[in-house]
Amino acid sequence: MTTEDMREELSGGIDTAQDLHKRPKRSAGAELVIPVVGTLFALYYFSTIWDSPWTAQVSAFFIGCVLILTSAIVTIKIIGALRRGETTLNFERLVEPRSYLPKRLGLFALTIGYVIVIQFAGFTLTTFAFLFCAMALLNDRKNLRFIVILSLIMAISGWALFIYAFEVHFPAGPFELLMKKVL
Amino acid sequence: MEFNPSIFIELFAETIQYWWVIIPAIFLGLIVGAIPGFSAANTIIMLLPLAIVLPVEIGFVFMIALYCSSRMGAGIPAILVNIPGTAGAAATPLDGYPMAQQGRGQQALAISFTSSVLGGLITTVLALVAMPWLAEVAFYLHSVEMIVVMLFGISLIATIAARDTLKGLVAGFFGLMIGCIGADYVYETPRGTMGFLELYDGVPLIPALIGLFAISEAMIVIDRDSILTKRGKEAVVTGGWGPTIEGVMETLKRWWHVVWTSIIGLFIGVIPGAGAAIASFVAYQQSKTYSKTPELYGTGHIEGLIAPESSNNGVTSGTLVPLIILGIPGGATAAIMLVVLQYHNVTMGTELFLNNPKLAYLPFTAMAVTYFLMIFTIPPLARYMSHVTVVRTVYMAPIVIAFTLVGAFVSRDFVFDMYLALIFGVIGYVARKTGYHVAAILIGVILGPLLETYFIRAMKMSQGDITVLFSSMLGNILWVGLLINLAVPIWFEYRRDRKKKKAA
């Protein structure tokens, strides 16, 4: 197997940096996200150290300037490619494959929900609910019985191993408090 | 303080009798090392009552065994699911994960285990023999020299960037910029914190690690049934014990690679505050620079996996040298060990070698025995562990998200850190989808603040004189080494191109 074969085999749906260059039409908008966010963050950072002593400024100014410079070069290159018609200003690469977009957004929403709810409902209950909902969503609501059992086993095992056996500080909720009283 | 082999042999025989403490500690360490957010330091803290109640020798042996195996455990998720258990294993997935995707997960684990054990054993013996001289390394390496050592690690960004230089540099400097968040080292001026008190100490590494690797990977893999490629699936299904034996043999064939990369880890481990992350980045970068096949790195290359794994286990022995000889802990775990030993009225330093030489040598014999016992207990697990890769992503992705997110909470008990992991997850997702390397971002986040600290320290001591960076002999040697290191890949590539042209 050659190096190129390996890269192609590995990419399986996710394109590597090299693949992006091979493509006739790139997704310029998506490729600009990191440089733009980086530049904006560097400018914000500079605003927080403007009146600071030199010790707080020296490395940040150097790093920030290089970041802005390299980001600017990436942007100029992309503008050049746009002019030549080699790329289009869209965000397609971030959402492809389109057919998985609802599932991906759903999983992300559930993940945000997990972080919010775990503070009140505790680790065990929230983990069970999250695992059940996420697995059911990704598996097109098939095998629900298996998913319930798997979610239950994972949540209870997590509680038994980390909270009960190792006494790790996980977010506590009604289940953890009840078990603490019972055991 | 001179090395006495008879004491070592006697102690080895005595320490092996503690197998009943060491073996459970090995498995416990393997588990805690594999879970992001947990670490040997946290586990020893949790088990502090046990470590204190046990007789000092047994307690010490338990802590050492846990420490060694947790270092090895961190490589398991890094290889199988692209999630390093600790920052010290952050360079492991660069070649370990592609191997798992190709269905060579079992072989990759066997390579990781063998190189960890060999690296650990070699550096333990070296540390024992060269302890007095190694302790001096910590004295000679000041801020100036440390700046160059950090730059060796950061130059890995350039190596990663070789495939797409601009994007690699943008990712690396974005990481360095994120690493600058927090109060400055001298005046405690908050910078770039967006008003969050939780960021005053800087960006915590565990949420960054979890977000960039675990969350983003989980969000991406859901569009495939399994993380394995088609060929990978066939390889896993047909694999018996063969890949494990093959992995062990492949590592043994490259014994010299294990030796020199683990020595890098030993030297970096001796320096207080340096650590396994720097060692594994430096070792990976050096390995690629002097390789005859640098183009294979990042595609599942065996040497790319050996380098970080043997070096981060080399750090384990190195960290104990300043602890034993000077009473200065080289890292968090060593600091907790020091607390336990002080509780037992054990004073570290040269006095310990005069009053209680057996206890002074015990950490190294315990380490040697632990690695020796690991040879028989850990490699056989590779076959079964590698089956994680065949779990369908519809089940694996939610489990990874739930258990790693809560791991982000554990390190500081802040819910804020879980949100932070989510933000890094989004950054990681966008970076992966658009060809910016997440490892380059992580290198920046890890090494950026360290570089700044040493730089400011050097500047303060020299009252702002930048020439201080070239004021020491050792520092200048390291600078030359760094320049050679950056020039060598360019020279090699130039030679390869010329050969190709001639052949054409």
Structure description:
- The complex is a heterodimer of chains A (183) and B (504).
- Helix content of chain A is 77%, strand content 2%.
- Chain A is mainly alpha-helical and 183 residues long.
- In chain A, strands 1-2 form a two-stranded parallel ribbon.
- In chain A, 28% of the residues are buried.
- The longest helix of chain B is centred in the C-terminal third of the chain and has 31 residues, at 473-503.
- In chain B, helix 1 packs across helix 20 and helix 16 packs across helix 17 (302-326).
- The N and C termini of chain B lie far apart (61 Å).
- Chain B is an all-alpha fold and 504 residues long.
- Chain B is 73% helix and 1% strand.
- A two-stranded antiparallel ribbon of chain B has the order 1-2.
- Classes of the chains: A mainly alpha (183), B mainly alpha (504).
- Written as H for each helix and E for each strand, in order along the chain, the element string of chain A is HHEHHEHHHH
Which shape of chain B, going by the Cα principal axes?
Answer: globular
**Mean pLDDT, all residues of chain B:** 83
* Secondary-structure-derived class of chain B: mainly alpha
H/E series of chain B, N to C?
A: HHHHHHHHHHHEEHHHHHHHHHHHHHH
Give the helix tally of chain A: 8
Order of strands, main sheet of chain A, comes to 1-2
Largest sheet of chain B: 2 strands, antiparallel
Which sequence of strands runs across the widest sheet of chain B? 1-2
Supply Rg of chain A.
Answer: 24 Å
Oligomer: heterodimer
Structural class of chain A: mainly alpha
Give me the Rg of chain B, rounded: 22 Å
* Poorly predicted runs of chain A: 1-24
How far is the first residue's CA from the last residue's CA of chain A?
57 Å
How many DSSP E strands of chain B?
Answer: 2
